[in-house]
Design a protein that fits this description.
The chain is of the alpha+beta class. The strands form 14 sheets. A 9-stranded antiparallel beta sheet has the order 2-3-4-5-51-50-1-49-48. Strands 10-11-12-13-17 form a 5-stranded mixed beta sheet, with no helix packed on it. A hairpin with a 7-residue loop joins strand 14 and strand 15.
Length: 1519
């Protein structure tokens, strides 16, 4: 199963229905959903129409690995559609029936055989009472699946075989009745307040009755004195008072009872293992209690010997008229509708439901028989009571066969009417070649290009007209069913790329050459069919490394050498079937576990059976193999190599006289030394190398005798990564820089200033840049010079056209080569190269683009915007679907929900008159109907299925469309794709030689613009317009994307997915309007990690006892972080406004907390002000202060007492996330920390009043200096390493903060620099290493932000020039200013006329807004402030010889000259005094001019300065 991430599963079911052998059934309260669990672990959801009981299978829930034993509802509320399933292996899952996703998953050490949901007094929702193969009754929370408490036994503890929970009429508390397998009945009263974490409760009463292995027990709801207990051989009615038997009935001959239920006070319904129902009337003289007034309460003859007529009377049976024998007992359940206010809610009040091994469902409507009718039945003298046939029945295979045309299989094109379909029995997907290999029932193996064969089944297009497309290869060599396939190279690259291995029912293992299609070798060493093929681990001995391992049904295991073509080891003395094969490669052992628990240990090199272990020893050895694997894998991942010491293995080898182990140990010692040496030299880049394939196809079947269905998993992130890698790999660093994908040049430039200025280093940097810049240019120049006459371009074009012609010719003759990929090939020489190197069986570019084309064609909302559809088909190359697509949903733990194709027949028929204009009249009616259903599906139904599906699909389509838009003119039209390849930036200059290129160039550019616009429109439709378009189509039940799923992906690892989820979330929040946002904020605010630092009730949300709020700051921070994996993996949560009341586990609470922080952070940052204003308006309208309600903490995000509480809590939470020290829960670079950085930057103006700004800035700078300076820009799409990603986000956030609040940024940084300088002066005394402080390490980042601010916000910077200069001088290495002027070193700051640098005296003067002059002595690293003017200084300048400094203030209209006198030989304090002052001409209309450009001082000689004013006048002054 692919890793967690954004995965879109699509299912091709094939012509035959999956087997569904039903083990339990459940009908939802509203009679709209029937749930059936199967023996193979699947759960099927059926859509039921309550009025007609018509059933349609809707989807399959896949994930349990063992038979489903129990299904139960999870909540009392009717609209809450959740169920809990429990399997034989102890797995429990909570499913959301509407979305089909698995919300919670737990694996308990208990196996339940029965679950009764019950609403205990004093709780807000149902609890599950479970019994099974253990000696207690467990009470489980249905949403978190944790055991809340248990009921244990003091007397004769034993497994509980049946239980019933009830609330007796006169008592307040509930009572649990339990019956053990040995027939001990027990009673537990449940005291009020019992809840999570309570001690086990013990029974208060118990009594032995004669009732072994009961199957069910039920108390009569109408008369609580009677209890029905069902065993296989009899059912009995007991009196609840003293548990005495009132009557007992045996089953009909050859049947056993399965269960029973009360229909009324004196009627019971029983059902047997033959699938029949029996209705009995109980003898009234036996019944006691209020209801049974026919007998006196304590009459003496009550316990007397029974007389005739006292036995229950069978008055009706429910059975099939003709029944074929069942292979296993059916699952049956009685359903009684709940009536509200005495009115029936459903048409059918009482139903008996039966599901059997054929996947068949039968419903009986249980009749109410009045006493008069009973009397009539009694009078009729007959040997058999009347039998009722089922009201409704259906099987999955019937529904399947009704579908015309039948659901598509993956290689349907190979069937013809003469050759019916052959079952697919095994399949494997080869991602590198994009091919699917299918083994079949008849022993043939078929190889097809995967994405193309799927296109053929699902999409319209030209390919539908070819008769032999896509090309396929057939391998013939097995004489019977192919059981398993293995492509060893996919598991480890040490194997040949061309080798494919298959195992069949004919006892043979075949080795094939994929490329030539020839059978290389046939291993016939087993004496049974091959059941499994696997690859040994990669640290075995060299001989075994080239082998594969096969397991057969004759209990043998073989190691087969692929290169030697012979069997290396045949381990065949196992007495029982082989269950597991494990490895101890370093000891040269293969460990084989059998089904009876014995473990055989074989030496791989010699084939010698080392020993046989039984029982606990065997288990320990198997367990040790797992530990060994874990240890070696962690060793290869980390730097620490392997299991401690090769010497250990050396001695172990000596002890067991195993030569191979001795040899291996010594080799391993050498290998280790080399490895360690490599580790130290290796430096990792910033880009994460992802090797996940964009498409994985897995065969899927529920039963070995079924034909395989196929699930396609599209991995969105992997697809985007591949598309972008192909795009970027064709660019030189210069091109990347030019397109703004990396900004290393400016970074290196800034970084160089902060390094010490040895001329050598400077030269190197300049040199490096020259090289990077020139490389691309050189290449182009050399090519151009060589190709004076455009020969290269022409040759290339000629080759292209020739190739195309040849291809066309070959195709017209009908020559199809297996090696080609069957498309008009996109200008590749794949064929000629492919045969030679064997690698180019198919072009990789094609595969990635084809997968993208397939995915977008399947999930695009066709039919909502006809104009866009035309663009998609014509310009972008998408294809329309032919059939409604069966999608799937991935949820927790790899559990999935797969849509079945049968619900498509449920799609309402569209009026053919209105739409048939586009469809030819001569098509068969079922095709027309299918086309209608498809159109309806893509335009509407697709978006009405599930919120999770909508979210995933919208994210996928927006992310991929944006990726393709960012690529250079990418489309799926082969012809255009070929031209695009020709138009790579490097080749563009080459083709300028031909004449008409100019025209072509323009046409190309225009086309490129159209294509980009097409992708942009596609993205906009799905991001913004979809809901309105759907409601225009008349859709009432659009399932909106889930806000919190989007919030979880706010900082997804993949940049395109990240930006898609951000835009989608913002669009969704905007669409909600302020009321919707307010409601959302109210529902999530209670999950914020509130910090109780202000007195008053506002900080304590009443979230119920489940969430004890963290006290004190430290603990709050701990609670605040959550597992990053949780955020990443669990893309499954339900947004209900009731969210806060939901009980939940600690991880769930942490996940909610994380989601709440991000969600409120986003709302605060983007919509902060409007929530505040609505709140104040409401306050004003209500007049005066209202008493605080629960939601009052959520007043808004504005400033001021009323609105600030929420902003305060959110900003504290974000700041904590940024600053909390790394822990296992919150690693240094997690997506949660990145989200906090991002949101702090986005909403800085909202959070600023509550933040410690300097801490936040230092925290962000800390993240920036973690990584080197070559982190790509925000536009670079490939996933980065967590460090680089955090660095990039922090940089972006700092820029946002700096531009939003420049003054705060500069003053805070200046304050920190001052603090740093103080530390520097006392560094030795306080013994601190300054080079490790953030302020020292983040110098380049600070400089970059200063440069950005001067660029963007000159006037704000002019007001803070002295602080800016403090920071600049802190960051720039002083050595640079020795040899160069400030203007050369950091030109940005010299734009201000108030700044002047004198190289002679090495001083810098800065005129401040306050009228002060700051003079920096670079030699002594001091700064002197002089009160020069009474108004802002507009300009200052040193004379060329550095003796005088002139300063000018235009507000005062005065120019001053200053002279600095130093003591003798520069000793003593220097003093600066004013030597002359002149009044200047006032500037007219001063306010009009920019404060930056008011005046300039330029020295003409050493004594004369010229003042140039902004109005053009010039005046000269002498000292």
């Amino acid at each position: 199963m692919p890793a967690s991430g954004l995965i879109v599963p699509v299912v091709l079911w094939g012509k035959e229905a999956p087997t569904h052998c039903i083990s339990c059934v459940y009908l939802s309260k509203d009679q709209r959903t029937l749930i059936t669990g199967a023996y193979d672990g699947q759960i099927c959801l059926w859509q039921v129409e309550p009025d007609t009981l018509k059933m349609t299978p809707r989807c399959l829930l896949v994930g349990h690995s063992a038979p489903i034993l129990c299904l139960s509802k999870a909540s009392i509320s009717a609209e809450n559609n959740f169920i809990v399933s429990s399997s034989e292996s102890g797995e429990m899952a909570t499913w959301d029936l509407v979305d089909g996703k698995c919300c919670e998953l737990a694996k308990l050490p208990y196996v339940h055989t029965n679950i009764q949901p019950y609403h205990m007094s004093g709780t807000e929702d149902d609890r599950l009472f479970c019994n099974g193969y253990y000696a207690e009754i467990l009470i489980i929370d249905p949403f978190s699946l944790e055991v809340l408490f248990s009921l244990a036994s003091r007397v004769n503890p034993d497994w509980i075989s049946a239980l019933h929970v009830l609330r007796p009429a006169k008592r307040k508390d509930d009572v649990v009745l339990g019956l053990t397998t040995t027939g001990m009945i027990k009673m537990w009263p449940l005291p009020a307040g019992v809840g999570k974490g309570s001690d086990p409760l013990y029974e208060t009463e118990s009594k032995q009755i004669r009732c072994l292995n009961a199957l069910g027990m039920s108390c009569c709801a109408y008369n609580q004195r009677t209890v029905l207990i069902v065993c296989a051989k009899f059912w009995q009615i007991y009196d609840a008072g003293d548990f005495s038997v009132l009557c007992s009935v045996s089953p009909p001959r050859g049947e056993r009872w399965l269960g029973g239920e009360f229909l009324a006070a004196d009627r019971v319904l029983l059902w047997s293992d033959e699938g029949r129902g029996y209705m009995y009337r109980l003898p009234s003289n036996k019944l006691r209690g209020k209801f049974a007034d026919s007998c006196i309460a304590e009459s003496k003859d009550f316990h007397n010997k029974a007389i005739d007529g006292d036995n229950p009377f069978l008055y009706c049976t429910l059975a099939m008229p003709v029944e074929k024998p069942l292979s296993c007992p059916p699952a049956m359940r009685f359903f009684q509708a709940v009536s509200q206010q005495g009115k029936p809610t459903c048409k059918y009040q009482k139903l008996l439901i039966r599901g059997d091994s054929e996947g068949a469902i039968k419903f009986w409507d249980v009749p109410d028989v009045s006493n008069n009718q009973l009397a009539q039945i009694k009078q009729e003298d007959f040997n058999k009571p009347p039998a009722l046939p089922p009201t409704h029945h259906i099987t999955i295979s019937e529904v399947w066969s009704d579908m015309k045309p039948a659901p598509a299989g993956i290689v349907d094109q190979l069937e013809t009417p003469s050759a019916p379909s052959i079952h697919l029995t095994a399949s494997i997907y080869l991602p590198q070649q994009g091919r699917l290999v299918c083994g079949r029932e008849d022993g043939s193996i078929i190889i097809v290009p995967a994405s193309q064969t799927v296109m053929l089944q699902l999409l319209h297009g030209k390919h539908q007209q070819y008769d032999d497309w896509p090309p396929h290869q057939v391998l013939l060599g097995h004489a019977g069913r192919v059981n398993c396939l293995l492509y060893p190279n996919h598991v480890h690259p040490r194997y040949e790329v061309s080798h494919l291995v298959s195992g069949g029912v004919d006892f043979a293992v075949c080795l094939w050459d994929l490329y030539s299609g020839s059978l290389l070798h046939r291993f016939c060493v087993h004496a049974g069919e091959i059941t499994q093929l696997m690859v040994p681990p990669n640290n075995c001995s060299p001989r075994v490394l080239k082998c594969i391992c096969s397991v057969a049904s004759d209990h043998s295991v073989a190691i087969l050498g692929l290169s030697e073509r012979k069997c290396v080891v045949l381990a065949s003395r196992h007495l029982f079937p082989v269950v597991t094969v494990k490895w101890r490669p370093l000891d040269d052992f293969m460990v084989v576990g059998c089904s009876d628990g014995t473990v055989y240990i074989w030496q791989m090199e010699t084939g010698h059976l080392d020993r046989v272990l039984h029982g606990i020893c065997g288990e320990e050895v198997l367990h040790a193999c797992d530990e060994n694997v874990a240890a070696t894998s962690s060793a290869s991942a980390g730097g620490d190599m392997g299991l401690a010491n090769p010497a250990v293995h050396f001695f172990r080898g000596l002890r067991s006289r195993n030569l191979s182990a001795i040899r291996h140990a010594t080799q391993r010692g050498l290998h280790q030394l080399q490895q360690l040496h490599h580790h130290s030299n290796h430096h990792d880049g910033v880009v994460v190398k992802s090797d996940a394939p964009p498409l994985v196809i897995q065969g899927y079947r529920t039963n070995p005798k079924d034909s395989e269905s196929h699930i396609l998993f599209f991995d969105i992130e992997a697809l985007i990564v591949q598309l972008l890698s192909e795009e970027y790999s064709a660019m030189s660093p210069g091109t990347l820089e030019a397109q703004g994908l990396i900004n290393s040049a400016e970074y290196e430039k800034v970084a160089a200033l902060t390094q010490s200025a040895s001329p050598d280093a400077h030269k190197k940097i300049v040199d490096f840049f020259g090289r990077v810049k020139d490389k691309a240019g050189d290449m182009e120049r050399i090519l151009k010079e060589k190709d004076k006459h455009g020969i290269l371009a022409k040759v290339k074009e000629g080759a292209e056209t020739m190739h195309t012609r040849l291809q066309a010719k070959a195709e017209s003759v009908g020559l199809k080569n297996v090696g080609s990929d069957g498309r008009e090939r996109k200008g590749s020489d794949g064929e000629s190269r492919g045969r030679g190197s064997r690698a180019g069986l198919m072009e990789t570019v094609n595969i990635t683009m084809e997968v993208a084309q397939l995915l977008l064609s399947l999930i695009h909302a066709w039919g909502l915007d006809p104009d866009l559809d035309k663009v998609c088909e014509g310009k972008l190359g998408l294809l329309r679907p032919m059939v409604p697509v069966s999608f799937g949903i991935m949820s927790k733990g790899g559990f999935m929900c797969l849509q079945l194709p049968t619900w498509q027949s449920q799609l309402p028929a569209v009026n053919p008159a209105s739409t048939s204009s586009g469809i030819e009249a001569n098509l068969p009616p079922e095709m027309v109907r299918m086309e209608m259903a498809t159109r309806l599906f893509t335009a509407r139904t697709h978006w009405e299925l599930s919120t999770v599906m909508t979210t995933t699909h919208l994210l996928s389509i927006i992310a991929i469309a944006n990726t393709l838009m960012s690529m250079n003119c990418a489309t799926f039209i082969p012809e255009q794709e070929r031209r695009r390849k020709m138009h790579r930036p490097g080749l563009r200059q080459l083709s300028i030689a031909s004449e008409d290129v100019g025209v072509e160039e323009d046409a190309f550019t225009a086309q490129q613009a159209q294509i980009k616009q097409g992708w942009s429109l596609l993205s906009t439709l799905h991001c913004i317009l979809l809901p309105d378009k759907l409601s225009a189509q008349g859709s009432k039940i659009y399932k909106r994307p889930l806000v919190e799923l989007l919030a979880r992906r706010w900082q997804d690892q993949c940049l395109e997915v990240r930006s898609a989820s951000q835009t989608l979330l913002l669009a969704e929040l905007t669409r909600m309007g302020s009321k919707g946002r307010k409601a959302l904020v109210d529902s999530w605010a209670p999950f914020l990690p509130f910090k109780p630092d202000k007195p008053g009730p506002t900080n304590q949300p009443q979230t119920g006892a489940q969430h004890p709020q963290p006290e004190g700051n430290g603990e709050g921070e701990q609670n605040q972080q959550h597992h990053q994996e949780d955020a990443e993996e669990d893309d499954d949560e339900h947004l209900d406004e009731l969210a806060p009341q939901r009980p939940s586990t600690s991880t769930e609470a942490k996940r909610k907390e994380a989601t709440a922080v991000v969600l409120l952070g986003v709302i605060g940052a983007e919509f902060g002000q409007d929530i505040e204003t609505s709140a104040t308006k409401r306050k004003a309208s209500e007049g005066g202060e209202q008493p605080k309600k629960r939601g009052s903490v959520v007043e808004g995000f504005g400033i001021g007492a009323a609105g600030s509480n929420l902003a305060r809590c959110t900003s504290l939470a974000l700041m904590n996330l940024l600053l909390s020290p790394p822990s296992s829960r919150l690693p240094t670079h997690s997506s949660m920390r990145r989200a906090a950085m991002d949101l702090l930057g986005r909403g800085f103006t909202v959070w600023e009043p509550y933040l410690d700004v300097s801490k936040v800035l230092l925290g962000l700078l800390e993240q920036c200096c973690e990584s080197d300076h070559l982190v790509p820009s925000m536009a670079y799409g490939l996933p980065l390493t967590p460090t680089a990603d955090a660095c990039r986000t922090a940089r972006h956030s700092l820029s946002l903060i700096a531009t939003a609040r420049p003054a705060a940024f500069i003053t805070t940084m200046a304050r920190e620099v001052a603090r740093y300088n103080t530390l520097q002066q006392n560094a030795q005394t306080i013994n601190i290493n300054l080079s490790q402080t953030v302020l020292h390490r983040a110098k380049p980042e600070i400089l970059r932000n200063i440069e950005l601010l001067i660029d963007k916000m000159q006037s704000e910077m002019a007001d803070l020039l002295v602080e800016v200069m403090d920071i600049v001088l802190h960051c720039v290495d002083p050595g640079h200013l020795k040899v160069k002027t400030l203007n050369e070193v950091f030109p940005a700051v010299c734009r201000f006329h108030q700044v002047s640098h004198c190289t002679q005296t090495r001083r810098i003067a800065v005129g401040a807004k306050s009228g002060q002059l700051a003079i920096y002595e670079l030699r002594s690293n001091r700064c002197q402030l002089i009160a020069a003017h009474g108004a802002p200084i507009a300009a200052s300048s040193f004379s060329p010889d550095g003796k005088f400094l002139a300063s000018y203030s235009c507000t005062e209209n005065k120019i001053c000259f200053w002279q600095t006198s130093t003591g003798m030989f520069g000793l003593g304090n220097s003093q600066t005094r004013c030597v002359k002052t002149y009044p200047t001409q006032p500037i007219a209309d001063l306010s009009r001019h920019s404060p930056m450009k008011l005046g300039r001082l330029i020295w003409i000689t050493n004594k004369t300065v010229s003042l140039m004013l902004c109005d053009g006048s010039e005046a000269r002054y002498n000292v």
